[in-house]
Design a protein that fits this description.
Shape: globular
Order of helices and strands: EHHEHHEHEHE
Radius of gyration: 13 Å
CATH superfamily: 5'-nuclease
Structural class: alpha/beta
Number of domains: 1
Helix content: 40-55%
CATH architecture: 3-Layer(aba) Sandwich
Number of helices: 6
CATH class: Alpha Beta
Oligomer: single chain
Largest sheet: 5 strands, parallel
CATH topology: Rossmann fold
C-alpha cells in the first residue's frame, strides 16, 4: 500500500502554524493513504488533556484524523520505533518535524519530509 506516515510533531507544528497538515499531504501525495499509529493517537490524546498551548492543536489534530479518514494502525511500541519499522516497507514516506527521527530515517532509503512554516513539504 502506498502510504504517508505523519507523526505527532508534524501534526502539532502544522496546526500551530495555521496549516492543515492533512490537507497538505493530500495535495502532495494524492495517491497515498495517510497513516498514523495508535501511539500517535495516544500522544495527541495525552497532550489534549494537558494545560498548555499545544492542547488545542492536539484536539484539532484528533478531529482532523477523523475528518480525513486517516488510517490508524495498531502500534504498541514507542512511536518512533513504530515509524522506523513501518518506513522500511516499500512505497512509504514519512512526514516528521522531529529532527532526531528525521536523521534516523535519513539513512534508511525512506522518503522523509518536514512541513515548513509556509506549508511546503521539504
Amino acid at each position: 500500500m502506498k502510504s504517508v506516515i505523519i507523526d505527532t510533531s508534524s501534526i502539532l507544528f502544522g496546526l500551530s502554524s495555521n496549516i492543515d497538515p492533512f490537507a497538505r499531504l493530500k495535495e502532495n501525495f494524492p495517491d497515498r493513504t495517510i497513516v498514523v499509529s495508535t501511539g500517535i493517537i495516544r500522544e495527541l490524546t495525552l497532550i489534549s488533556k494537558e494545560k498548555r498551548k499545544e492542547s488545542v492543536h492536539a484536539r484539532i489534530g484528533l478531529a482532523l484524523i477523523k475528518k480525513y479518514g486517516v488510517k490508524v494502525v495498531r502500534g504498541d511500541e514507542y512511536v518512533d520505533t513504530w515509524i522506523i519499522k513501518h518506513s522500511l516497507r516499500a512505497e512509504v514516506v514519512v512526514c516528521t518535524n522531529d529532527v532526531e527521527l528525521k536523521q534516523r530515517l535519513g539513512g534508511r532509503g525512506c522518503g522523509v519530509f518536514s512541513l515548513s512554516r509556509s506549508g511546503l513539504l521539504r
